């Protein structure tokens, strides 16, 4: 798969295109060299044959047939290696002179030039070789063949062809290897950017894309992306700081207003007025719970509450939470199942983990109709501790699952139900502190009420205690949040942390 993914990269495809262009240019160059070299040698051979024919013709004109026979025999005698081929015969192919005994097969040619093999069929006594010759008729009914041994030329052509083939093969192999190395190097750098980007998208906003210090295109791209991330984080922190400041500043007057309404409720005698004041007190409590939840999430996201992690028994913690919510489930006549594997240990903050577990169980009960089913499970899978809550409620559409962890986000189906859309934001913040991840899925896929299964995966305790360092909280909020800690913790439970599935 890794090889296939590398073959699909644009870098490798560009290298492949370059390889094709380069190989084509090398092939054309070698073909030109071959054409010029082999053509020149073939032309030189033909010119040599033409020169010998011219000499024999001159001897024939001056000395006649006997002189032609004599000069052929002299040339044969002077050429013991038989580089030149001669054959003079009568009209009925009776040999008069030459170093072969018979005419080659298929010796007729419109141009007069023939290529044949020197072997036993022509009376050749040496090793089999290739020859090229010209055939014509001499006055008086005689036939003359004059040629040259071209076996060395043919072998040279074969050597050049083999060199071209090897050259092309080596060129393609080197180009392919170079393209692969270049693609691998480029892919590695792109994969670093992709991996870091994916982790940043998953919430690790403090990460930045590493650079090599070469100031090349990739370094410039990484620096630009890092500067963009710095700017985004700066703007996000600004917005978060403003929202947290508003939540903190408004909480005090709201608390005073709520207390005044409660005092008024005590003094009012009219039942209708008492009902209206009571509703106002409830609304004030809801607003205070929302502000407290916002401050709690802000502290979690800055990890101010994660300074001291301890080993926690997840199954015991979930057992305590289930005991707390068994009564609300019975009131709705819901089936409340528990499957808790014993001895599942994690390293974390027990209070935060209990808040996370409680929120998820509370949501399951709230959004599951009467006579519905709720299942809570704890188990260990490899190096992970799993906490899972399943219900048979209204569920969450697939296109909204990735948005429900945002603050104040509520699914359209549940907007009529009580809540403020902060519960899952708190759950997400707690899971992130504990290096966990949350997976949302349908309990009954394809059904009208698919339900929802929330799976929280966290690192299981391995027996080696590792303290998770907390990122310092925003200095601008340190005093205010410390002052309001107890109130925020108290308001974090119940409706203030509820969210619509």
TrEMBL record:
Its main location: membrane. Residues 476-501 have a biased composition (Low complexity). Coiled coil: none annotated. It is an enzyme of class 2 (transferase). It catalyses: ATP + protein L-histidine = ADP + protein N-phospho-L-histidine. Its EC number is 2.7.13.3. Residues 245-462 form the Histidine kinase domain. Residues 184-237 form the HAMP domain. InterPro entries: HAMP_dom, HATPase_C_sf, HATPase_dom, His_kinase_dom, HisK_dim/P_dom, HisK_dim/P_sf, Sig_transdc_His_kin-like_C, TCS_sensor_his_kinase. It comes from the Bacteria. One of its GO terms (cellular component) is plasma membrane. It is found in: Membrane. PROSITE patterns: HAMP (PS50885), HIS_KIN (PS50109). Pfam families: HAMP, HATPase_c, HisKA. Residues 470-501 are annotated as: Disordered. The keyword Iron does not apply. The chain crosses the membrane at residues 12-35. Keywords: Kinase, Membrane, Phosphoprotein, Transferase, Transmembrane, Transmembrane helix, Two-component regulatory system. One of its GO terms (molecular function) is phosphorelay sensor kinase activity. This is histidine kinase. It comes from Marinobacter lutaoensis.
């Amino acid at each position: 798969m890794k090889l296939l993914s590398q073959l699909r990269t644009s870098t490798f495809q560009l290298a492949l295109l370059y390889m094709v262009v380069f190989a084509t240019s090398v092939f054309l160059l070698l073909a030109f060299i071959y054409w010029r070299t082999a053509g020149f040698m073939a032309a030189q051979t033909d010119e040599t044959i033409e020169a010998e024919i011219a000499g024999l013709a001159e001897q024939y004109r001056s000395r006649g047939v006997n002189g032609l026979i004599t000069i052929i025999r002299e040339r044969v005698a002077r050429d013991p290696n038989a580089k030149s081929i001669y054959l003079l015969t009568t009209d009925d192919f009776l040999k008069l002179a030459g170093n072969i005994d018979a005419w080659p097969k298929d010796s007729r040619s419109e141009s007069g030039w023939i290529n044949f093999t020197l072997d036993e069929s022509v009376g050749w006594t040496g090793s089999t070789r290739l020859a090229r010759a010209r055939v014509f008729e001499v006055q008086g009914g005689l036939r003359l063949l004059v040629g040259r041994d071209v076996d060395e030329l043919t072998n040279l052509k074969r050597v050049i062809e083999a060199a071209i083939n090897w050259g092309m093969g080596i060129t393609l192999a080197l180009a392919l290897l170079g393209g692969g190395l270049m693609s691998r190097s480029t892919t590695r750098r792109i994969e670093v950017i992709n991996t870091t980007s994916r982790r940043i998208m998953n919430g690790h906003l403090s990460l930045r894309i590493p650079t090599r210090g070469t100031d090349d295109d990739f370094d410039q791209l990484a620096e630009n992306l890092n500067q963009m991330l710095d700017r985004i984080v700066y703007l996000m922190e600004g917005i978060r700081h403003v929202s947290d400041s508003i939540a903190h500043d408004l909480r005090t007057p709201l608390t005073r207003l709520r207390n005044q309404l409660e005092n008024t409720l005590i003094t009012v005698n009219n039942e209708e007025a008492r009902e209206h004041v009571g509703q106002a007190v409830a609304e004030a409590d809801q607003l205070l719970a929302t502000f407290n939840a916002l401050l709690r999430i802000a502290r979690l996201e800055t990890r101010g509450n994660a300074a001291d992690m301890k080993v926690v028994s997840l199954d015991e913690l979930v057992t305590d939470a289930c005991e707390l919510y068994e009564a609300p489930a019975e009131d709705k006549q819901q089936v409340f199942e528990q499957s808790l594997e014993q001895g599942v240990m994690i390293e974390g903050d027990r209070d935060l983990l209990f808040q996370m577990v409680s929120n998820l169980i509370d949501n399951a009960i709230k959004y599951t109709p009467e006579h519905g089913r709720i299942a809570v499970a704890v188990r260990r899978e490899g190096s992970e501790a799993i906490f899972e809550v399943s219900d048979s409620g209204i569920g969450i559409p697939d296109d909204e699952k990735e948005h429900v962890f945002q603050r104040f986000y509520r699914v359209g189906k549940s907007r009529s139900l009580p809540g403020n859309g902060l519960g899952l934001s708190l759950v997400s913040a707690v899971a992130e502190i504990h290096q966990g991840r949350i997976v949302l899925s349908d309990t009954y896929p394809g059904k009208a009420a698919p339900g929802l299964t929330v799976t929280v995966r966290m690192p299981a305790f391995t027996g080696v205690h590792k303290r998770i360092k907390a990122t310092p909280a925003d200095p601008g909020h340190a005093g205010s949040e410390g002052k309001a800690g107890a109130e925020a913790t108290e308001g974090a439970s119940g409706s203030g942390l509820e969210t619509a599935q």
